Amino acid sequence: xxxxxxxxxxxxxxxxxxxxxxxxxxxxxxxxxxxxxxxxxxxxxxxxxxxxxxxxxxxxxxxxxxxxxxxxxxxxxxxxxxxxxxxxxxxxxxxxxxxxxxxxxxxxxxxxxxxxxxxxxxxxxxxxxxxxxxxxxxxxxxxxxxxxxxxxxxxxxxxxxxxxxxxxxxxxxxxxxxxxxxxxxxxxxxxxxxxxxxxxxxxxxxxxxxxxxxxxxxxxxxxxxxxxxxxxxxxxxxxxxxxxxxxxxxxxxxxxxxxxxxxxxxxxxxxxxxxxxxxxxxxxxxxxxxxxxxxxxxxxxxxxxxxxxxxxxxxxxxxxxxxxxxxxxxxxxxxxxxxxxxxxxxxxxxxxxxxxxxxxxxxxxxxxxxxxxxxxxxxxxxxxxxxxxxxxxxxxxxxxxxxxxxxxxxxxxxxxxxxxxxxxxxxxxxxxxxxxxxxxxxxxxxxxxxxxxxxxxxxxxxxxxxxxxxxxxxxxxxxxxxxxxx
Amino acid sequence: xxxxxxxxxxxxxxxxxxxxxxxxxxxxxxxxxxxxxxxxxxxxxxxxxxxxxxxxxxxxxxxxxxxxxxxxxxxxxxxxxxxxxxxxxxxxxxxxxxxxxxxxxxxxxxxxxxxxxxxxxxxxxxxxxxxxxxxxxxxxxxxxxxxxxxxxxxxxxxxxxxxxxxxxxxxxxxxxxxxxxxxxxxxxxxxxxxxxxxxxxxxxxxxxxxxxxxxxxxxxxxxxxxxxxxxxxxxxxxxxxxxxxxxxxxxxxxxxxxxxxxxxxxxxxxxxxxxxxxxxxxxxxxxxxxxxxxxxxxxxxxxxxxxxxxxxxxxxxxxxxxxxxxxxxxxxxxxxxxxxxxxxxxxxxxxxxxxxxxxxxxxxxxxxxxxxxxxxxxxxxxxxxxxxxxxxxxxxxxxxxxxxxxxxxxxxxxxxxxxxxxxxxxxxxxxxxxxxxxxxxxxxxxxxxxxxxxxxxxxxxxxxxxxxxxxxxxxxxx
Lengths: 486, 478
Prior knowledge:
The complex is a heterodimer of chains A (486) and B (478).
Chain A (H helix, E strand, L loop, with lengths): L2 H9 L40 E2 L22 E6 L5 E6 L5 E8 L13 H8 L11 H7 L4 E6 L4 E8 L3 H11 L7 H13 L9 H8 L13 H4 L3 H11 L5 E7 L3 H11 L9 E2 L1 H5 L10 E5 L5 E6 L4 H16 L11 E7 L6 E7 L4 H14 L3 H18 L3 H10 L16 E3 H4 L3 H4 L18 E5 H4 L9
Parallel strand pairs in A: 3-7, 9-14
Antiparallel strand pairs in A: 1-8, 2-3, 2-13, 4-6, 4-7, 5-6, 10-12, 10-14, 11-12
Helix pairs in contact in A: 2-5, 3-4, 11-13
Chain B lengths: L2 H15 L21 H4 L13 E4 L5 E6 L5 E9 L10 H19 L5 E7 L2 E9 L3 H11 L6 H14 L5 H14 L10 H5 L3 H11 L6 E6 L7 H10 L12 H5 L20 E3 L9 E9 L3 H14 L4 E7 L2 E9 L5 H16 L5 H21 L4 H11 L3 H16 L3 H11 L9 E6 L3 H7 L5 E2 L7
Parallel strand pairs in B: 2-6, 7-11, 7-12
Antiparallel strand pairs in B: 1-2, 3-5, 3-6, 4-5, 8-10, 8-11, 9-10
Helix pairs in contact in B: 3-4, 3-5, 3-8, 4-9, 11-15, 14-15
């Protein structure tokens, strides 16, 4: 809002009806990490993690999947893999004539080679430089000129290009996404330009030290600052940039989610047509999407020495799906609302919160006011798992479901959520077309929230006490100096 | 013509196309970007306006005018209460008193509805306060009950005094541009300055009696309009609406305005015929004597009649075009709009700054814009409107409120945004030029201009006096 607008708002008489401000230059909104700790395990090669090949695409996978389950209750989505390996999810929202398009590529800053920190971050900005069909900045201009909004989200394990446009410009927005990864323009001049943008993009601040997050997820790449523009990245030449882009940014490891007011089948056909000229490819997914976080390996939580930790802090990794994040949210809200037990001290307090990311969410639990904080946490856990707090859990589930339904009402929020849904086994190409239709509630992770109230909440093994990590001050586990002592 | 002569002509043509020994620069050709766009092909009108169904319109027993917009299966409930702050003859509460009432309403509703997870917003629009409530559709009846409880006719005297103290603590001294805008708008509309200006002193000075009177005026459903966008139909919520009508009612006698649109309209602005800037007869600068922080500023403005959708779209389009060169804003409320242009005054050459701004405005008003530029500006504006509405939660009541500003009768509201979109997209460059020459040219167009400076010292006033007399709203020109 301009200052003049503020004046009018204050004056109360004239509400300035100027055009809503369209998005400015693309800005990253989801990133991680700070500085690499000294003890970060060296990642010798570009950790382009081994990928899980998906079934071969069938030639007819690009045709609109027909739904035989149209009579199924509730809204549906179309979800299938195109012949080029791109997973396409289409949903409908007719409240306003706007459409959201989100291209999510399953690569992120944690995939940076150790010798080139900040590579993925910089490469993402290079993808704004167009290709043979689009001038540099052209994709952004297409959206902005129609009054739309476009943003860029660079996370540790997912990069998203998001657009919200008037529905009449959906075709243009889809076209730009169909061009974005297709032989991007690269030159030394454009690379310098991209690095200039990348330098302005600051890293996200996490609620915990990076090494703790890396340890929780078992991903060493999370421990470094993925938003730095390192000298090694700056020194890259155009050919190396092209190679790096081709390795990391492919449609076969991406999901395109489209939410538009039009008919599902028609929207699907239009989008699939825009990608029809791409060569066939096998879909590949990083293991982090198919494996999920580690479950408990023992009976006690693992201890991790970290500098600057006060009190008792525990953390758990959350799976890379919307459903896992919602489960963890219910779990967290329930813990925050548990009554004090008979064995707890008067000042005993357990507080839970989530550090959210589409792929690398962390649950953080802090206990205080007890002589044995871990025992306090264990007792609270026991009440959750024994069913003693089922009413409390059910209530949190209901509230979360209602609030999340409202949150997902707008196309951009829904498209983001659909791109978060890993759904690694999504409608394999070649399978019956009916498999392409899924209930929307399933695609956004609500299935477990809407199951019967008496159904115990399945929090998953990764939210067990023994699967967590306890952060302890570094001094606690530091070996005694040989020269000290009597 | 024989085949041989054809060959001769072809050979000659080929020679003409061959490059010569000396490369000739191609003759300059004026670019033509004036191709008429096809509105129907490029932008479906329905794509730039909400697809809302016909609303259920009702006037409750309490006199509250309601528009119920039903969206099947929507999980949300949005209610927007429009409360006019001006009476038909122009009288009304001060901005300070109205702001206190709005603050109390927001605080009380937030507290009342917190358990339902509802969010309450208060916004100011032309001549009205808008109280918006956003919650879950399942709680529709409880949310309506909350409105009735908070806006009951009994004056919450203690809470209002508490609200006055809270707002007084929050409001800081105005910026110079805020002062200038408030005074200029008051002058253009012929209303008291305190109906536009908010200061900590004015807030502290609102007495309990004034607060009570303002509460009785503003919290009267016979003056208000309620817009609802929900997943439930009005029919299914009839009982809740009846409770709302029973519990929230006004006191005393009051004549009901004939339509919802009429409730929101203030009186017409006074005629300022003949007032042009830097032209004879000279229009004096109004000088604000109110305290303001910030650099010297000049605000130029006028009231523009907008009786038809075409005129409204031209006003909006003009603002978009000239807004690329100057800091211009337009607010449209039915059949009249206000144009304001803000100019920073150079301390070394204030008269030069003011003259340059008027020159720029005059030049823009007399420049014909290419048709494609108008179309692009219209597309961007209209697209941004729906995109912003989506980002704001897809609340139809906000768009309906905007639509009310573009309508002259209740029947026009539902289609006003679409009509506005159509008029903007099909605006004619020549018609715009003619319209701009009439209404946006401060030197030679229609009279009705005014200008106000704020944050200026004697030195700047002396310099400004070189180009126009310097006066004040309450004192004659010097």
